[in-house]
Specification:
Largest sheet of chain B: 7 strands, mixed
Strand order of the largest sheet of chain A: 1-2-3
Number of domains of chain B: 2
Oligomer: heterodimer
Low-confidence stretches of chain A: none
Shape of chain A: globular
Distance between the termini of chain B: 33 Å
Strand content of chain B: 5-15%
Order of helices and strands of chain B: EHHEHEHEHEHEEEHEEHEHHEH
Low-confidence stretches of chain B: none
Structural class of chain B: alpha/beta
Distance between the termini of chain A: 52 Å
Bound molecules: FE2/S2 (inorganic) cluster
Structural class of chain A: alpha+beta
Largest sheet of chain A: 3 strands, antiparallel
Mean pLDDT of chain A: 90
CATH architecture of the largest domain in chain B: 3-Layer(aba) Sandwich
Helix content of chain A: 40-55%
Helix content of chain B: 25-40%
CATH topology of the largest domain in chain B: Aspartate Aminotransferase, domain 2
Strand order of the largest sheet of chain B: 2-8-7-6-5-3-4
């Protein structure tokens, strides 16, 4: 049986202490905001898109250490990817990149992937108009 | 980096004097206290001496009113569950405040499965029990009313003597969970009209996994763990000699040191509160004056408590939080909701509880850690 992870991985703490891509993009091409139904946290992601790729991405998060680290990680992972590639990023991908999350904290990584997907959907619906 | 430990309400370091007193009982001195041989008698007398010291700490009228248990959770279970079941023939109602520890709330809730009714009494925004609501809730069929001496999350000290008077107007017994107040402020079970009182050994500076329950002579309760009938039948299992001697010594030290330690810690607490409240959008939780001398608790708007805890830890400061994100159930603290905070407001909770190792000289470092942590998290928040 896998050993129960105690506390956060080093990777999580790195992203928590020095999160990447924090902030707001004025006039973003896409915007996603999700609330965590489990514990009530909020995450938002802004993207700009060029040639079907995520050119720039920013986030802001109100939540626990894991929520902050996963949002930082998901923005790193999505940057430069095509929209389809970014749409395919799952919460498990984010958790794996962070060298694991405690089981109780997996739902926070949902939030990050959801906010990203939300922002892409928002961009696509704006294009459709 | 110097570590600054500010989570004494969760776990206290064991006092070195306690270790000195108790260690011989772990490292060699044996004897079943029920035995009539020399070792047994020695063990028995060590236990009785410890019992006397715990009784003195709370001014119990009779040393035999102290029952040693395996911790405050167990004491609370015997007090609420055991006493309610034992007295079911005279009434099947229990009442607690809304801010009790989970080890009081859960046995009270569970009694409903056995046909009891259970009522909770609200508190005001400072966490003080609403005495009018208490008066209404306690009916002649109420056998156990449980109100804590002081709250672990917000530090508020309850008006226990007044509460005792109200409970005894119509109800039967008052149980007081003094886990956080024990050894910190003077407790007098006779003066305060307390029928049952919970103490934690660790919160006095004794070993983890030790506790006591005071039961006023004449009050009837029953065990929750059945067995060989030790501790007047209320807590079966061979006595934990090391733990009991340790808890007794901790009670003695707590009583002796209380006047000085109380003043010393309150001074540090007040500096901490004064400093933290200069930060933006920071508020005190709990009562501004009627609070435990070692307890400072806050909330910061727009940021979350687990992040605060992790951020403070980076600066070497260990604090607690009542945030939903740190709780096992991911629910907001029932205490913070009970004092009227919205779910999102309860999120930004930070709790600092002081102990012997803390000094005034540490306050600037704690304030620096808090200032930086709050600033950093506010820069990330979307709110
Ligand atoms: S955001 Fe609340 S637990 Fe992670």
């Amino acid at each position: 049986m896998a050993e129960q992870q105690i506390g956060y991985s080093k990777k999580v703490m790195e992203h928590f202490m020095n999160p990447h891509n924090v902030g707001v993009i004025e006039n973003a091409d896409g915007y996603g905001k999700v609330g965590n139904p489990v514990c009530g946290d909020i995450m938002e992601i802004f993207i700009t898109v060029k040639d079907d790729r995520i050119e720039d991405i920013r986030f802001r998060t109100f939540g626990c250490g894991s929520a902050i680290a996963t949002s930082s990680m998901v923005t790193d992972m999505a940057k430069g990817k095509t929209l389809d590639e970014a749409m395919a990023i799952t919460r498990d991908d984010v958790a794996t990149e962070l060298e694991g999350l405690p089981p109780r904290k997996m739902h926070c990584s949902n939030l990050a992937a959801d906010a990203l997907h939300e922002a892409i959907r928002d961009y696509r619906s704006r294009q459709g108009e | 980096m110097e570590r600054i430990y500010l989570d004494h309400a969760a776990a206290m370091p064991v006092d070195p004097r306690v270790i000195d007193a108790a260690l011989p009982y772990l490292a060699g001195k044996v004897g079943n206290p029920s035995g009539l041989y020399e070792e047994g008698l020695m063990a028995k007398s060590a236990i009785e001496e410890a019992r006397g010291r715990v009784a003195d700490l709370i001014n119990a009228e009779d040393t035999q009113s102290i029952v040693f248990t395996g911790g405050a959770t167990e004491s609370n279970n015997i007090a609420v569950r055991g006493t309610a079941l034992r007295n079911a023939r005279t009434g099947k109602k229990v009442v607690t405040s809304a801010i009790e520890h989970i080890s009081v709330l859960n046995p009270a809730k569970d009694l409903q499965k056995s046909g009891f009714t259970y009522a909770t009494v609200p508190v005001d925004p400072w966490g003080v029990v609403d005495c009018e609501a208490l008066r209404e809730a306690v009916t002649p069929d109420t056998t156990v009313t449980s109100v804590m001496y002081a709250n672990n999350e917000i530090g508020t000290v309850e008006p226990i003597r007044e509460i005792g008077e109200i409970v005894h107007e119509r109800g039967k017994y008052l149980h007081v969970d003094a886990t956080d107040a024990g050894g910190r402020i003077p407790i007098d079970v006779q003066r305060d009209g307390i029928d049952l009182l919970t103490l934690s050994g660790n919160q006095l500076g004794g070993p983890e996994g030790t506790g006591a329950l005071y039961i006023r002579p004449g009050v009837r309760s029953q065990p929750v763990v059945l067995g060989g009938g030790q501790e007047r039948g209320l807590r079966s299992g061979t006595e934990d000699l090391f733990g009991i001697v340790g808890m007794g010594e901790a009670a003695r030290i707590a009583a002796a040191d209380m006047p000085g330690e109380r003043r010393r810690l309150a001074a540090i607490r007040d500096r901490l509160i004064e400093g933290i409240l200069t930060l933006e959008e920071a508020a005190l939780t709990g009562h501004p004056t009627d609070r435990l001398p070692h307890h400072a608790s806050f909330r910061f708007s727009r940021i979350e408590g687990e992040s605060i805890q992790l951020g403070m830890d980076f600066f070497g400061v260990a604090v607690a939080t009542g945030s939903a994100c740190t709780s096992r159930t991911l629910e907001a603290s029932h205490v913070l909701l009970a004092i009227g905070l919205a779910h999102a407001e309860a999120h930004g909770s930070m709790i600092a509880t002081l102990g012997r190792s803390n000094t005034t000289e540490q306050v600037p470092a704690v304030l620096h850690a808090a200032r930086e942590t709050v600033k950093r998290l506010r820069a990330i928040t979307p709110l």
